[in-house]
Design brief:
The complex is a heterodimer of chains A (249) and B (428). Chain A is α/β, with parallel strands linked by helices and 249 residues long. Helix content of chain A is 35%, strand content 26%. In chain A, the strands form 2 sheets. A 6-stranded mixed sheet of chain A has the order 6-7-8-3-9-10, sandwiched between helices. Chain A has a 4-stranded antiparallel sheet with strand order 2-1-4-5, covered by helices on one side. In chain A, helix 5 (150-164) runs parallel beside helix 6. The longest helix of chain A has 15 residues, at 97-111. Chain B has one domain (62-369). Chain B has 7 helices and 23 strands. In chain B, 54% of the residues are buried. Classes of the chains: A alpha/beta (249), B alpha/beta (428). At the A-B interface, helix 2, strand 6 and helix 3 of A face helix 5 and helix 6 of B.
């Protein structure tokens, strides 16, 4: 059984059809990249997988480990193993990063029928992971993402991914707003999570990110469809030639 | 004019006959004048300061003076009121100081309120509920730090009715002499039963270089009326900090008004007011503040947050007056309300009156509901909606709570907010 199976997915926002028949299969252990110009439906795809409101799926299926994600609320999808790394992580004033992380970890544990994490174990775990990601100790005491730099926000996203150990991580334009150093750190964090039990869907406009998170498969998306698929060399070709020939097609 | 006062109310001659009178002296005179004032009526829906909290419902209840009831017997403090470590407990039952339930202290003076203890901070004519308190004052307590010391007092005010609805009018006087630091944690609760009306007046006198902190929690799960009017005077370099929590239960229909009048009389005086109200059911909560800057170089900060559910009603009226003598004033006020459903209402009236030309003043007010982007972010991390909403509501009030400088008090207040959220449970 595949980790993620998307079958002929159509979705609308209002009256406008954005996804016009997406089919994609990701097996455990694989990293897939979706590249495409702006406004082509890449973020819609990630939001539909994660279960955001405001999208009307008119036909098709999205299965995670055989479970129909489209019948599940966003929080249940996350507990089932979907992790969306946001392009623009929201700032939540008043909610400390630490309280948020603990709540998220416990949500997952409760979903698995486990007791809440012990306070000391939580601190030890977070300390070890923040250190590995080069995150300052005080960051987890600050309100979630409030006043974080672009790099800090993306590191915080990777920290969450590390702690929640998803089955499928969807990275939505994770490279936007990152300088090269932050990009390297974030990519290393992602790469350290690659493994035989986990799949990645990396959505990006630019090839740059894929120099650091090297995909197994690359798909080109324009006009709400996947119009070409190939190996990592496809990304390099796109960088050199642009999207023009796919858009014209 | 007729609608500005409610002339039919329970505090007329029959009430006076049961309440008795003060014996002679200055207070007897004040009491006569106050009773004449009350005879004219209670604030009604057209009364400018009371139009968002009209006392129409209060006036319909046949209250009798608590002192006239012979079927109320409170012998202990409810066990759900926690003991605060290191704090001196002071207990009032229906407005009467109960030495038998209270602790003693050696570095401060604690005594049943005697009329001559009134500091006179509150102008009688302007405030009808203070007049009502003066007319029928039932006792109360005086807490005085007469020399430099650091002390925390836990004041527990219990309202309990017997077979009839009771009213009581305590006066609480808090004074801190030069260099003293007094913290008063106040828990105002009601025992189940007939409605009661607690009409409390608190006078606070902060001397030069002294500090008074008050952390007030009014928890109303029933249909009682709590009106607490504080008159505060702060001398040079003195600090007055108060935080007021108002919780209205999810099946409550009570009315709470916490009104604070603070005067910054001395140079570099500081006043910091904060508050959070969280209301369910049909409960009503009103924060009314009047800050007057008399002296130069003083600062006042106000931050109030409201969380509204059910068909509750929140009110914030904040007036800041900066007199011509109060140059270099720094005065800020902010009120934010968060609606959990479409049912509640909020009325907000911030006012700035500035006569000095070299001041920094700011005020603002916002209302909103929970941001769906925040909810989605939390959902995408596996957090179910009730938990996510609870986290966001706690986050919403966190900056107001974070102003509470005493860590123990802050934690206790936070826990009360959390308990309120939990009681709402899965429906949040």
């Amino acid at each position: 059984m595949s980790l993620l199976e998307i079958k002929n997915l159509h979705a609308k926002v209002g009256d406008k059809e954005i996804l016009k028949g997406i089919s994609l299969t990701i097996n455990a252990g694989e990293v897939h990249a979706i590249m495409g110009p702006n406004g082509t439906g890449k973020s819609t795809l990630s939001n539909v997988i994660a279960g955001r409101d405001g999208y009307d799926v008119t036909s098709g299926e999205v299965l995670l480990d055989g479970q129909n994600l489209l019948e599940m609320a966003a929080d249940a999808r996350a507990r089932a193993g979907v992790f969306l790394a946001f392009q623009y992580p929201v700032e939540i004033p008043g909610v400390s990063t630490s309280a948020f992380l603990k709540t998220a970890i416990n949500a997952k544990r409760r979903g698995e029928g486990k007791p809440d994490i012990d306070a000391v174990d939580f601190l030890k775990l977070v300390k070890a992971k923040t250190k590995a990601l080069g995150i300052a100790d005080d960051m987890i005491r600050r309100p979630l993402n409030v006043g974080f730099s672009g790099g800090e926000k993306k590191r915080a996203e990777v920290l969450q991914m590390t702690l929640l150990e998803p089955r499928l991580a969807v990275l939505d334009e994770t490279d936007s707003g990152l300088d090269i150093d932050a990009l390297k750190v974030v990519s290393e964090g992602v790469n350290s999570l690659r493994g035989p039990d986990r799949g990645f869907l990396v959505i990006t406009h630019y090839q740059r990110l894929l120099n650091y998170i090297v995909p197994d498969y690359v798909h080109v998306m324009t006009g709400g469809r996947i119009v070409a698929s190939g190996g990592k060399e496809l990304a390099e070709q796109l960088e050199a030639e642009g999207y023009a020939k796919y858009q014209a097609a | 004019m007729a609608a500005s006062l409610i002339s039919a109310h329970p505090f007329g001659e029959a009430y006076a006959a049961k309440a008795g009178t003060a014996s002679g002296g200055r207070w007897a005179e004040l009491q006569r004048a106050a009773r004449a004032e009350i005879a004219r009526g209670l604030p009604g829906p057209q009364h400018e300061e009371w139009r968002f909290t009209p006392l129409t419902a209060l006036a319909r209840v046949g209250f009798i003076p608590a002192a006239a009831a012979d079927d109320v017997d409170v012998t202990t403090v409810p066990s759900d009121v926690p003991r605060i470590e290191g704090a001196t407990r002071v207990v009032l039952v229906n407005g009467v100081y109960r030495a038998d339930l209270s602790d003693t202290a050696t570095d401060i003076e604690i005594a049943s309120f005697a009329p001559n203890d009134a500091t006179g901070q509150i102008a009688l004519a302007e405030l009808p509920l203070v007049a009502l308190n003066t007319a029928y004052v039932t006792g109360g307590v005086t807490i005085a730090a007469k020399r430099p010391t650091t002390r925390t007092v836990h004041l527990i005010s219990i309202g309990a009715s017997g077979s009839q609805p009771l009213a009581f009018h305590p006066r609480i006087v808090v004074t801190a002499a030069a260099g003293a630091s007094l913290t008063v944690v106040e828990t105002h609760i009601g025992l189940p039963g007939q409605p009661f009306f607690a009409n409390t007046v608190i006078e606070v006198d902060v001397a030069e270089d002294a500090t008074v902190r008050r952390y007030v929690a009014v928890i109303e799960d029933g249909d009682a009326f709590h009106i607490a009017t504080s008159g505060v005077a702060v001398a040079a370099r003195g600090t007055y900090e108060s935080f007021h929590l108002g919780l209205g239960g999810h099946r409550a229909s009570g009315t709470v008004r916490q009104e604070i009048h603070a005067r910054l009389n001395g140079e570099a005086a500081r006043v910091q007011l904060g508050g959070v109200y969280a209301l369910g059911g049909e409960s009503h909560h009103d924060f009314t503040t009047v800050i007057t800057h008399h002296a130069p170089g003083a600062s006042s900060q106000q931050l109030f947050k409201g969380v509204l559910d059910g068909k509750s009603h929140g009110v914030y009226q904040g007036r800041v007056q900066v007199l011509q003598t109060a140059q270099k004033t720094d005065a800020r006020q902010l009120h934010k309300a968060l609606f959990l459903t479409a049912g509640p209402e909020v009325d907000v009236k911030p006012e700035l009156e500035i006569a000095a030309d070299d001041v920094q003043c700011a005020h603002g007010a916002t209302t909103g509901s929970i941001d769906p982007d925040h909810l989605f972010f939390l959902a995408a991390r596996g957090i179910d909606e009730p938990t996510a909403r609870g986290l966001l509501v706690e986050g919403f009030v966190a900056d107001a709570l974070s102003q509470v400088s005493d860590e123990t008090a802050r934690d206790a207040l936070q826990q009360q907010v959390t308990a309120w959220l939990r009681k709402r449970g899965g429906a949040l």
